[in-house]
Amino acid sequence: MKKIFVLVFSSLVIALSVTAQSLEQKIKEFDAYIEKSRQDWRAPGMAVAVVKDGKVLLQKGYGVRELGKENKVDAQTLFSCASTTKAMTAVCMGMLVDEGKIKWEDRVIDYLPEYQLYDPTTTRELRILDLFLHNSGVGNADYLWTFMDIPAKEMLDRMRLVKPSYSLRSSFIYQNLFYVAAGEVIEKVSGKPWEAFIQEKIFTPLGMNRTAPKRKYIKDNNQVVPHYEVNKKIKPITYTQDHAIGSAGSVWSSAEDMAKWMICMLDSSKYAGGRLLKPATWAKMFKPATLVPDAEFYPTQQLTHPNWTTYALGWFQQDYKGKKINFHTGSLAGLTAIHAQLPDYKLGIYVFGNFDHAEVRHALMYKAFDWFALGGTTDWNKDFLNLYSKIFAKVEKGEKDFEAKRVMNTSPSLPLADYTGKYSDPLYGEFEITLKDNTLLIDLNHFEKAMLEHWHYNTFRGPYEKDWYGKATANFILDATGKVSKIDFEGMELTKVK
Q1: Backbone phi, then psi, for 99, in 5-degree steps?
Q2: Rounded distance, CA 144 to CA 151, Å?
Q3: What is the C-alpha to C-alpha distance for residues 304 and 319, in angstroms, rounded to an integer?
Q4: Three-state secondary structure call for residue 495
Q5: Which CATH number fits the domain 24-396, given the four candidates 3.40.710.10, 3.40.50.1980, 3.40.50.720, 3.30.930.10?
Q6: What is the side-by-side strand order in the sheet with 316-320?
Q7: How far is residue 324's CA from residue 301's CA, in Å, rounded to a whole number?
Q8: Mean pLDDT of the 263-283 span
Q9: Rounded to whole angstroms, what are the CA distances from 296 to 172, 301, 495?
Q10: Contact present, 472 and 490 (Cβ < 8 Å)
């Protein structure tokens, strides 16, 4: 009997040793896969964290923080979380629900009476839960922070002028500004600004000491620089001014801290000192709520073929190999992120990058799910590289096709000086146009500029001052007397006032 016990015990030790060696080898091979993928996508720097069953499998930096410099990325390097911030903001609201200070079914207007929308019915019926689900019907209004520098309260005030794209809860359209509104509600209910609340309630308890609610709170230089490809060359660019949309996407963090966040959320929000949310509230975070149409989902579905795509509270969702996955990307100019979960296996991966829309993040998400849980040999890096290469080529062709439609040898209807002046709109702000060397210089809300040369007829086109924005197109509209009355700039129509 003793010999049998010894044999069984020895076999168990050997099996555990082999399993440990196998996992160690898997991590090593996945590490190599990450680096190869980074190089294939030409991303200057990346940071990746992988967790499973409450343990960190990998947290590591790759490449450099800025091209041309020897500052290596490590697990402590700070990147933008961008829209992966949204899941954190949803948890903040969930905490207030657990404390009995607010209900998901409460009307937004009862907390923010100044938050009026174009459709009075939507204003009256919009609930706290709706702020997190992109189901309001209100059209995307990102121009309120990408073309102007105004505080959150002013952005929300201008939302009353944004016409709906469809009726309340009838479909899906991505809307950052409603998460900004959620941040304002959190402040109103808690008495603390969103950034103070999230620091106190999430970052500090989880020991996320390398995480800041906004970049302005970062106190060291171990942070990445964003990069963009301009004229076939990758170059560093300036940071997007994202402070006004804090609760929608301003958190900065590291791979090491994101590992802590992932472990907590995969374990029903538990951490060493307790839990962030009650079990029912945590479950609500991931309950499918809004159907996401194919046109609004990620191009990756062309290869992964999900049967359903939904949105929960700060999470996109789909099925993959018969399992539910939760994930969300984050994107600012020159910076990328993705947070993904395979909850049935308590497996999570977070990928940071400092190169605009390097979709290596999607490849690593699916590869991690295959590699550490579901099995399979698909080279997602190769397949997505091919997919997105075709997408980028199509975009480039579209640009060339547009330029090919230019009508040559036309002249503007008026002298160039007649197009100058100030143009205003309650929603889009104030644009001012001046003339220099036969070029119209347009100043957009004292925030962004572009140089417009005559294209054809009364249309002018030219580069933005920030060249990674590409080219802008402006069409001037004449009134019945033949004078300039309006400008249509990238779909934003403003009236000439001076």
Answers
A1: -80, -5
A2: 10
A3: 9
A4: strand
A5: 3.40.710.10
A6: 55-63, 45-52, 347-353, 335-342, 323-332, 316-320, 309-311, 290-291
A7: 14
A8: 97
A9: 8, 11, 32
A10: yes
Tell me the pairing of strands 323-332 and 316-320: antiparallel
- Report the distance separating Cα 442 and Cα 420, nearest Å: 9
Give the three-class secondary structure for 330: strand
Q: What are phi and psi of 178, to 5 degrees?
A: -75, -30
| Rounded Cα distance, 292 and 385, in Å | 24
Intrachain domains 24-396 and 416-496 with the same fold: no
**290-291 and 309-311 beta bridge pairing:** antiparallel
Distances from the Cα of 467 to the Cα of 47, 428, 470, angstroms: 27, 22, 6
What is the C-alpha separation between 325 and 414, in angstroms, rounded?
57
Residue spans per domain, the chain: 24-396, 416-496
Unique residue bearing structure tokens 């994930």? 327
Nearest to 264 by CA among 256, 272, 253: 272
pLDDT tier at 14 (50, 70, 90 boundaries)? Answer: very low
d(CA 136, CA 140): 10
The tokens for 185 are 């509600």
Query: Dihedral through CA 405, CA 409, CA 414, CA 415, nearest 10?
Result: 120
Overall residue count recorded for the chain in this entry: 498
Please check whether residue 382 is in contact with residue 395, taking contact to mean a CB–CB distance below 8 angstroms.
no
In what helix (H) or strand (E) does residue 11 lie, and over which residues does it extend?
helix 2-41
What single-letter amino acid sits at 71?
Answer: N
Specify the residue for token string 């999900």: 306
Separation of alpha carbons 302 and 298, rounded Å: 8
Q: How many CB atoms lie within 10 A of CB 104?
A: 16
State the Cα–Cα distance between residues 352 and 300, nearest whole angstrom: 18
Selection from 240, 18, 222 nearest residue 145 by Cα? 240
159 closest CA partner among 124, 105, 125, 119:
119
pTM, 2 dp: 0.93
Residue 139 half-sphere exposure toward CB, CA atoms < 13 A:
12
- Can you tell me the distance from the alpha carbon of 35 to that of 252, in angstroms, rounded to the nearest whole number? 23
At 126-173, the pLDDT tens digits run 999 999 999 999 988 999 999 999 999 999 999 999 999 999 999 999
Backbone φ, ψ for residue 412 (5° rounding): -65, 155
Q: Where are the alpha helices (DSSP H) in 273-379?
A: 279-285, 301-304, 360-369
Q: What is the CATH number that goes with domain 416-496?
A: 2.40.128.600
Q: How far apart are CA 374 and CA 120, in angstroms?
A: 48
| The pLDDT of residue 425 | 97
Question: What phi and psi values does residue 15 have, to the nearest 5 degrees?
Answer: -60, -45
Give the ranges where 159-211 is alpha helix by DSSP (H).
176-190, 194-198
